[in-house]
Structures
1.
Amino acid sequence: MYVCLCKGVTDRAIREAVSDGARSWREVREQTGCADQCGKCASMGKSIARDAIARE
Ligand code: FES
């Protein structure tokens, strides 16, 4: 599912960024570009990133 329409970032891309080593929402944003434009996806993106980080 698309989390960030502006940048075309999916929940899977966020989880992959975490398995590739991102350990914070900031690092996930740097790797994916999520929430770089309108920011509407920030709260969902952050919650998916935190969940993925907690599972690592
Ligand atoms: Fe992610 Fe706009 S939907 S920055």
2.
Amino acid sequence: HILPITLSKNHYDVIIGSDILQQCGTLILPLLKQKKVFILADQTVADLHLDKLIHSLDLVHVNYEVILLPPGEKTKSFQYYEKVTQTLLEKGVERNSTILAFGGGVTGDLAGFSAATVLRGVPFIQIPTTLLSQVDSSVGGKTGINTSVGKNLLGAFYQPEAVLADTKILDTLPQRELQAGYAEIVKAGLINDPELFKWCEKNGKKIISKEHACLAKAIEMACQFKARVIQNDEYEQQSTGRNLLNLGHSLGHTLEAELGYDGRLLHGEAVALGCCLIFKLCTQMGICPEKDTQRVIHHFESVNLPVTIKRLPQPIRASNLLNHLKHDKKSQNNKITFILVNGIGKAFTSQDVSEKQLYNLLIEDGCIQD
Ligand code: NAD
Ligand code: ZN
């Protein structure tokens, strides 16, 4: 499947298919300005799949250099940004070279930001290898790294030349990572695509058991959804646009920050829990039917995603979460901006949640009082 994305200045295709990695060389050749690519690869992904990528490049006589990156969120840092850009320059990267990001969202974000800034911009191609990066981070042009002040606070909007999503590459992805990525697909449905959510209710189990045809369909629908949103609001300037993609993310990020990026709570798991909390909050506020909230909780539970703070591996203090939320980059004029819901597929932006309402919800959901 080919999904075209048309933005104000760029146009690119998301190419989805099983085992397209072995045709990568042929697929990207028409996009290259020079037969020279720099592959920035997650070490784990490289161990498993780099041979195939390199073989496909050899077939069309494309030269390559490989830069390996240690897996994990810590790599999306100043330190690795410096290492990567320095190495690219030392290895002779030119304006006409192309950077290939070969890994999950961490690799894509770091490689994209490096591509955006080295020599003031070198073309890059995304080959996302996690479900999360195939349905979310590789499409849309948000690139960046983390800082000690917070996640993703340094970055650029920089669109790729193409995105190649190979469903077969997901065969080696750990089950928990797959489930976490799936949470972002469900989130898309919850925002404004109730049909997608219905489809998820019917096919969720097949997706987490990695049925290829189903996975391809899910990736296609989620990318279509994301394309619609970013085509209307490329630079996140409207409250009804890209911003809505953050459903469940403010709370999700604070939970991630509390449990510390060491694998105890994956990003997608935090998003699933964050979405459940928003639905519970909105039902309490009287703006979302209880039955919608129950459906959402039931669905996330059925695919082994967390739905309540009670079951997290560590007790969480409500006041810690609130403090994090207030420092979130989305807080403006001391008010926390939330994406709320009037039901499944009915998300909107609001600054009308009081601290008291939030605190009560967190306590009710299992946080410790102080
Ligand atoms: P990740 O890149 O850390 O990958 C998760 C783990 O899976 C890593 O250990 C990696 O080595 C391993 N892995 C990757 N592909 C594999 C494969 N095919 N087989 C076996 N193992 C594999 O995590 P992620 O979930 O892909 O991405 C998370 C990052 O994405 C976060 O930093 C988040 O901020 C970012 N993100 C960015 C955007 C955006 O718009 N740019 C959107 C959402 C998330
Ligand atoms: Zn996310």
